[in-house]
């Protein structure tokens, strides 16, 4: 192996090491921020930790950290914001796995929260993680500027609420009962809301922390938007091709559940080509950044090559 392929392989190895190190740092921050397993509420606190720590790619947290690095943000500040995003993401997974939603038994290679505890605990875990995410962002320890903290809270709320992730989940549920299949535009909007908005915020958060100018901030936002769309296509391909052991969750469920996906509409090959186009567009948004954005460029490629 030589030339460009060797450089590409080196970039992927560097990304893998960087993501593993970042995941470990984020877990340490989550350990510090989440309530300890003590007191009368210890079962709730244990389940909150179970849902967020010691597993998962922590891709969204990595985006926060790498975006912040472009603007010289203090690592402690970036890690708190990254941990808040993981809390919010963890809440969404706990609720999505519930019997009333996707009814999944496995998440990140281990029983889902409602299986390891019970449904009521899972609902409360999601509620607690969501509110704790905003409490973390709003705390002075996250940033000295109250305007920055307020902007982080606002943008995360917009990304995760009724016109973001929650709205996308509702559209997903409605699509399963629709009498006619959704067209490409409708599926794209559903996936942008359900998955893409939180990834987009994760990419933008570092620029907010760094009080970046509108130009660089928009570039990171658009980068996040493109890889968010590519990520969902890759996720749908994994549901079709990966084993449960590889994915860490049940696979092959989307088609049987009548899920609206670009994969189902376009077919695997066209969907894969679309994801590759999105990745190239994402990397072009980083043209104004220097070599410090190398891991963000590698991450865009990784999004559509991963097996979990």
Automatic annotation (TrEMBL):
What's a GO biological-process term for it?
terpenoid biosynthetic process
- Look up keyword DNA-binding and say if it applies: no
Q: Which domain of life is it from?
A: Bacteria
Which InterPro entries has this protein been placed in?
Isoprenoid_synthase_dom_sf, Polyprenyl_synt, Polyprenyl_synt_CS, Prenyl_diphosphate_synthase
Q: Which GO terms describe its molecular function?
A: (2E,6E)-farnesyl diphosphate synthase activity; dimethylallyltranstransferase activity; metal ion binding
- GO terms for CC? cytoplasm
Record PANTHER family: FARNESYL DIPHOSPHATE SYNTHASE (PTHR43281:SF1)
NCBIfam families cross-referenced by the UniProt entry: FPPsyn (NF045485)
Q: What is this protein called?
A: Farnesyl diphosphate synthase
Q: Which organism is it from?
A: Muricoccus pecuniae
């Amino acid at each position: 192996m030589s030339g460009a392929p060797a450089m590409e392989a080196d970039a992927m190895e560097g990304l893998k090491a960087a993501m593993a190190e970042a995941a470990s740092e984020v877990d340490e921050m989550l350990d510090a921020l989440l309530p300890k397993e003590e007191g009368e509420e210890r079962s709730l606190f244990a389940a909150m930790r179970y849902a967020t720590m010691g597993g998962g790619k922590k891709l969204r947290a990595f985006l926060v950290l790498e975006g912040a690095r472009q603007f010289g943000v203090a690592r402690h500040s970036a890690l708190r914001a990254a941990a808040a995003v993981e809390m919010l993401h963890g809440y969404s997974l706990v609720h999505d796995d519930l019997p009333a939603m996707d009814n999944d038994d496995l998440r990140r290679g281990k029983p889902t929260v409602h299986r390891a505890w019970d449904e009521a605990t899972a609902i409360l875990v999601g509620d607690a993680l969501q509110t704790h995410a905003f409490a973390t962002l709003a705390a002075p320890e996250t940033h000295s500027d109250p305007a920055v903290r307020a902007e982080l809270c606002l943008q995360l709320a917009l990304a995760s609420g009724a016109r973001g992730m929650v709205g996308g989940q509702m559209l997903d549920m409605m699509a399963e009962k629709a009498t006619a299949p959704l067209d490409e535009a409708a599926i794209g909007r559903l996936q942008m809301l359900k998955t893409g908005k939180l990834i987009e915020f994760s990419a933008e958060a570092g620029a907010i922390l760094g009080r970046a100018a509108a130009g660089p901030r928009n570039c990171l936002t658009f980068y996040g938007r493109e890889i968010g769309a590519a990520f969902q296509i890759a996720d749908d391909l994994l549901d079709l091709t990966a084993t449960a052991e590889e994915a860490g969750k049940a696979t092959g469920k989307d088609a049987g559940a009548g899920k609206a996906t670009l994969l189902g509409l376009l077919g695997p090959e066209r969907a894969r080509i679309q994801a590759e186009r999105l990745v190239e567009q994402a990397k072009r948004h980083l043209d104004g950044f220097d070599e410090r954005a190398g891991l963000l460029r590698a991450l865009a490629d990784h999004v559509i090559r991963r097996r979990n």
